[in-house]
Design a protein that fits this description.
Elements lengths: L3 E3 L3 H12 L4 E3 L6 E5 L3 H11 L8 E3 L3 H7 L5 H10 L4 E6 L13 E5 L4 H10 L3 E2 L14 H7 L5 E3 L11 E4 L6 E4 L5 H8 L3 E2 L25 E5 L11 E6 L8 E3 L3 H17 L4 E5 L8 H11 L6
Parallel strand pairs: 1-8, 4-6, 5-9, 10-11, 12-15, 13-14, 13-15
Antiparallel strand pairs: 2-3, 3-7, 4-7, 5-6, 9-10
Bound molecules: threonylcarbamoyladenylate and magnesium ion.
């Protein structure tokens, strides 16, 4: 069976709620990327997420909730930093890792933590409120693929998802920032839409993880395997793409001010660049070129999340 895109009107929301209550899955829009949602308490539904995405079982899921109170109920404790960050940035593109309440199992974490966020998208919030369920939701793409920023992207990557609620293109276009609050100093597990500077204004110092991740057992941020967010084409990230020699046709991605002939040109503003990045990679990949050359963005903190995703998309752990 193949999936369907539905408008997020009363009928669409009702259909989505019925699927979620029947322990099935539904893709829905968030302000970052589209998520593949399931009742976080249902082992069956959560198992369906892992099956559809072909996601390794060691990689836990973010649980989406409608209110701070609902988040606290899923946590064993609620540190002062969680209180302050939630007040400052929720609903919004920030995921907080805290100790997990004992009654909650099944979202994949094999330790005692849980990742939580309130998404800032009216459709996501309506779905959460109407279902009354905490929704486990990873990005709605096959594991290691490019995250979806439109309903069409979801069905192209995951044709068997029964229903996709269409909320238009995601406004941030890059995943949430993931911050671990179980460490003495809060630790950045994944750079994302919300800038580090904004977090520091609230919490003070933030520890950065080693950007090198090893595919071993120690996984402080389980999802941060090296090859991730990758197109089918080979992606080459270069300081100057004009220096790179490739066999055959190549797509080129750059940003304003570093213009190159025949290239897709994104904004020189990191937030706008991030908003368009995945759609541009989807387009270049769909054009069938075997190689995508990407002009490396500046090495400043503002570009941290974009550089992280491009670095992962370029990493090749396999020989294709
Ligand atoms: O913007 C987003 O965060 C999107 C939308 C749908 O909310 N979701 C998303 O989910 O990007 P996913 O599954 O693609 O990435 C979740 C990240 C992974 O790196 C995962 O390892 C990490 O969060 N994570 C989840 N639970 C965790 C936990 N208990 N401890 C540490 N990291 C965790
Ligand atoms: Mg993902």
């Amino acid at each position: 069976m193949t999936g369907r895109i539905a408008q997020p009107d009363d009928a669409g929301i009702a259909e989505a709620v019925a699927l979620l209550r029947a322990e099935s899955v539904v893709a829905f829009p968030t302000e970052t990327v589209y998520g593949l949602g399931a009742d976080a308490f249902s082992h069956r539904a959560v198992g369906e997420i892992y099956r559809l995405k072909n996601r390794p079982s060691w990689n836990p899921l973010i649980v989406h909730v409608a209110t701070v109170e609902a988040a606290r109920e899923l946590a064993a404790d609620w540190p002062i930093n969680a209180e302050k960050l939630a007040a400052a940035f929720w609903p919004g593109p920030l995921t907080l890792v805290v100790r997990r309440a004992e009654h909650l199992t099944g979202v994949g974490a094999d330790n005692d933590t849980i990742a939580l966020r309130i998404p800032a998208h009216v459709v996501a919030l309506r779905l959460l409120a109407a279902s009354g369920l905490p929704l486990a939701a990873p990005s709605a793409n096959r594991s290691e693929g490019i995250s979806p920023t439109t309903a069409e992207h979801v069905l192209r990557s995951l044709p068997d998802v029964p229903l996709v609620l269409d909320g238009g293109p995601s406004s941030w276009g890059i995943e949430s920032t993931v911050l671990d609050l179980t460490t003495g100093v809060p630790t950045l597990l994944r750079p994302g839409a919300l800038a580090l500077r904004a977090l520091r204004d609230v919490t003070g110092a933030i520890a950065l993880r080693d950007t090198e991740t090893v595919d071993g057992t120690a996984r402080p941020s389980p999802g941060m395997s090296k090859r991730h967010y990758a197109p089918r084409a080979t992606l080459i990230l270069a300081k100057d793409v004009r220096d790179v020699e490739v066999d055959g046709p190549a797509g080129v991605l750059t940003y304003e001010g570093a213009d190159l002939p025949g290239a897709e040109i994104l904004s020189a503003d990191p937030r706008e660049y991030a908003a368009d990045l995945y759609a541009a990679l989807h387009r270049l990949d769909d054009s069938g070129v075997p190689t995508i050359l990407v002009q490396e963005p500046p090495q400043t903190e503002d570009w941290l999340a974009v550089r992280d995703r491009l670095g992962r998309a370029a990493a090749r752990t396999d020989l294709k």
